[in-house]
């Protein structure tokens, strides 16, 4: 008798709980936030998550979208293509129709295949590889620029401001790093500066002494590195120890305070191309205060783009008075321009921003950055 | 002429340093294999834990206001060896001893499981990000010849010397001491050794403790040299060290040293004269070639089937 009672109670509570979830689910629009929570580039994932989360909270505070509240769900792809595909399938199974992410281009690419097939709208706030939007997909957008715009900005800065004689271009053999490295190489070579080395390193490697000795032998006076901060941090650190004094430059993938933690003094003077500092834009002062009130750092390069991604989805939902991803995608493509924290946004047919400028910064040993000298040449 | 010679020497130095570190980690693989005939795949993780431990101790002592660098480093080394030794002991007790009597494959799977567990445990305990430490021992010697530079940092010399000393003392321990003799007996025939009144369980435990302590030495040295650690470094380091052990002949201590150095120099030569992209390809092709012509590795002895 007692067990029967227990079972009944258990059954009732399960039924009640599931009922509760049903009600909950009906009232919210879920937005998946996919990116690295773990792994070597998790700090970039954080930037994306706090940006998107802030947008969701603010929109909810203003009454939500079409009478419904938004709900953010975080998925961890660890910046691994394999895991990104699993995450994408999980998002499909969870019935979520809107994705902010992924972060690494090599993860975004395979995941976006699934989203396009399954009718899910994806806006990446960080992936800059041109291939992602080059396949005629309808549901794939981004709120960041492209490698083939970032590469030339870096290349032109090298040509016009640094004027080196012998350049080495090193990359990490991944889609993002190698893509941008090739763009830089092309721009630099066009200007008649010789690229004496173009080589890949393995992500995760710790010892670069052989590579550095080779660059010393080749009399390299400037190094461009396409990739992320763990490897460039070690390269900078070991270069300093081995007395190799060339200038270094990298893309936004190296621009976070961890590179200073790894490389220490050796990170002083490193050049980095980054999206403009949206947090310094006076228009965003109120938003910046909101981040600071929560103890979060709004200056990361992907914070505002991620905020914008959510806001664009919401504008699309409001504009179409529904939550159909295809309608929203159509709205975003044709109904611009939109006013957002990253400026006025307008999309081309591929889902890329019509305008997005990268800016060259000088990195400092304490993990801060300042605009590099003669900035007008960079724009 | 001098330029290319200097460059060659520089790359040999770089290769020997990397190779020494492979060798230090390889000893752990080779010792365990020599005595109980199994591959301890969790060994790379012990190396990773050793690096974390030495970072923690160095950071802790520095925060306490101590300024005596040799004392700090020595304490860090000893503490990380001791704690890593405890990890080695526990790993053997938890993951290997219960399955020792069964098929080899089961022990192997248990080892892989242990390795995944330790990786994720450190991820939870210390966070997934890179943790960096400022260089403690900086500087070195450099010579200039006709405007060309040859660098030899203090850390490179320390790594090489410590590796050779560790190898030599381990060799003495195995070949001269009473315990070492018991280890060798255990390697030849566990059942018989047991009958002669030697506690083989204890010998195997000691093997794991020594292997783990040496991995911690490697972790300490490489932590100081590279200054960066994350929970995933054990995997790649373990793979390279395992390759070195197989290359030199698994089960043989001088083989581990030789294998490590050959692997390190090959990698650095490939990077120097070919391309950094292909250094792993060339290193592993070398492994395949050597195993084709000498399946037991360079210094390995052909295994005699026991009846």
TrEMBL record, chain A:
Signal peptide (from-to): 1-25
Gene Ontology BP, a term: amino acid transport
The keyword Transport belongs to this UniProt entry's keyword annotation: yes
Keywords: Amino-acid transport, Signal, Transport
Top-rank taxon, per record: Bacteria
CDD domains (UniProt xref): PBP1_ABC_LIVBP-like
Domain spans labelled Leucine-binding protein: 28-367
Pfam families the record matches: Peripla_BP_6 (PF13458)
UniProt keyword Endoplasmic reticulum, yes or no: no
InterPro entries: Leu-bd, Leu_Ile_Val-bd, Peripla_BP_I
Similarity-based family: Belongs to the leucine-binding protein family.
NCBIfam families in the cross-refs: PRK15404.1 (NF011933)
The protein's name: Branched-chain amino acid transport system substrate-binding protein
Organism annotation: Allopseudospirillum japonicum
Classification lineage: Bacteria, Pseudomonadati, Pseudomonadota, Gammaproteobacteria, Oceanospirillales
UniProtKB/TrEMBL annotation, chain B:
Keyword Cell inner membrane: yes
Transmembrane segments: 20-39, 46-65, 71-92, 104-122, 153-174, 203-226, 281-300
InterPro entries (alphabetical): ABC_transp_permease, BCAA_transport_permease
Predominant cellular place of this UniProt entry's protein: membrane
DNA-binding recorded as keyword: no
Keywords on record: Amino-acid transport, Cell inner membrane, Cell membrane, Membrane, Transmembrane, Transmembrane helix, Transport
UniProt-listed GO biological process terms: D-alanine transmembrane transport; L-alanine transport; L-isoleucine import across plasma membrane
Location of this chain's protein in the cell: Cell inner membrane
Example GO molecular function: L-isoleucine transmembrane transporter activity
Any GO CC annotation of this UniProt entry: plasma membrane
Top-level division of the source organism's lineage: Bacteria
Topology of the protein relative to the lipid bilayer: Multi-pass membrane protein
Family statement drawn from the similarity comment of this UniProt entry: Belongs to the binding-protein-dependent transport system permease family. LivHM subfamily.
NCBIfam families the UniProt entry points to: PRK10740.1
Protein name: Branched-chain amino acid transport system permease protein
């Amino acid at each position: 008798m007692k067990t029967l009672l227990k079972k009944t109670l258990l059954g009732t509570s399960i039924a009640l709980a599931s009922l509760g979830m049903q009600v909950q689910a009906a009232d919210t629009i879920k937005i998946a936030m996919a990116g690295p929570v773990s792994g070597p580039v998790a700090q970039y994932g954080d930037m994306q998550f706090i940006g998107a989360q802030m947008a969701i909270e603010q929109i909810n505070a203003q009454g939500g979208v079409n009478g419904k509240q938004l709900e953010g769900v975080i998925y961890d792809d660890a910046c691994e293509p394999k895991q990104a595909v699993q995450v994408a399938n999980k998002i499909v199974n969870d019935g979520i129709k809107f994705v902010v992410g992924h972060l690494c281009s090599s993860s975004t690419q395979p995941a976006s295949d699934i989203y396009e097939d399954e009718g899910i709208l994806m806006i990446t706030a960080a992936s800059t590889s041109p291939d992602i939007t080059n396949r005629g997909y309808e549901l794939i957008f981004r709120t960041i620029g492209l490698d083939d715009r970032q590469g030339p900005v870096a290349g032109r800065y090298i040509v016009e401001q640094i004027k080196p004689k012998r350049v080495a271009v090193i990359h990490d053999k991944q889609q993002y790093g190698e893509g941008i490295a090739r763009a830089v190489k092309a721009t630099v070579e066009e200007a008649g500066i010789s690229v004496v080395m173009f080589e890949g390193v393995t992500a995760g490697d710790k010892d670069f002494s052989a590579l550095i000795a080779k660059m010393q032998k080749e009399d390299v006076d400037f190094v461009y590195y396409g990739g992320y901060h763990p490897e460039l941090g070690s390269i900078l650190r070991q270069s300093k120890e081995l007395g190799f004094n060339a200038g270094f430059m990298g893309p936004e993938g190296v621009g976070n305070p961890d590179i200073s933690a790894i490389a220490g003094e050796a990170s002083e003077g490193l050049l980095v191309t980054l999206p403009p500092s949206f947090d310094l834009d006076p228009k965003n002062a109120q938003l910046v205060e909101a981040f600071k009130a929560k103890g979060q750092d709004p200056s990361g390069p992907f914070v505002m783009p991620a905020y914008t991604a959510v806001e664009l989805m919401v504008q699309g939902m409001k504009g179409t008075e529904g939550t159909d991803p295809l309608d929203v995608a159509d709205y975003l493509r044709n109904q611009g321009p939109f006013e957002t924290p990253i400026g006025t946004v307008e999309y081309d047919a591929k889902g890329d921003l019509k305008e997005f400028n990268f800016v060259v910064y000088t990195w400092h040993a304490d993990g801060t950055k300042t605009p590099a000298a003669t900035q007008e040449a960079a724009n | 002429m001098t330029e290319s010679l200097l460059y060659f020497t520089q790359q040999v130095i770089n290769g020997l340093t990397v190779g020494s570190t492979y060798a230090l980690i390889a000893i752990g693989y080779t010792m365990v294999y020599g005595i109980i005939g199994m591959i301890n795949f969790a060994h790379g993780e012990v190396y990773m834990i050793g690096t974390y431990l030495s970072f923690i101790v160095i950071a802790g002592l520095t925060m306490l206001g101590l300024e005596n660098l040799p004392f700090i480093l020595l304490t860090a080394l000893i503490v990380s060896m001791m704690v890593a030794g405890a990890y080695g002991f526990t790993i053997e007790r938890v993951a290997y001893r219960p399955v020792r009597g069964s098929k080899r494959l089961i022990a192997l799977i248990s080892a892989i499981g242990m390795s995944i567990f330790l990786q994720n445990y450190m991820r939870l305990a210390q966070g997934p990000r890179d943790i960096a430490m400022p260089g403690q021992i900086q500087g070195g010697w450099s010579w200039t010849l006709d405007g060309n530079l040859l660098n030899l940092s203090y850390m490179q010399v320390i790594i090489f010397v410590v590796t050779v000393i560790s190898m030599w003392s381990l060799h003495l321990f195995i070949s001269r001491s009473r315990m070492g003799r018991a280890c060798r007996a255990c390697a030849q025939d566990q059942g018989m050794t047991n009958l002669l009144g030697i506690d083989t369980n204890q010998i195997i435990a000691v093997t794991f403790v020594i292997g783990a302590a040496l991995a911690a030495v490697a972790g300490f040295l490489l932590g100081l040299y590279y200054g960066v650690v994350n929970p995933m470094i054990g995997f790649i380091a373990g793979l390279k060290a395992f390759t070195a052990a197989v290359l030199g002949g698994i089960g043989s201590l001088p083989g581990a040293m030789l294998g490590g150095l050959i692997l390190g120099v090959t990698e650095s030569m490939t990077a120097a004269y070919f391309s950094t992209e292909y250094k792993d390809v060339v290193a592993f092709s070398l492994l395949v070639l050597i195993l084709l012509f000498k399946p037991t590795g360079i210094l390995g002895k052909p295994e005699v089937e026991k009846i």
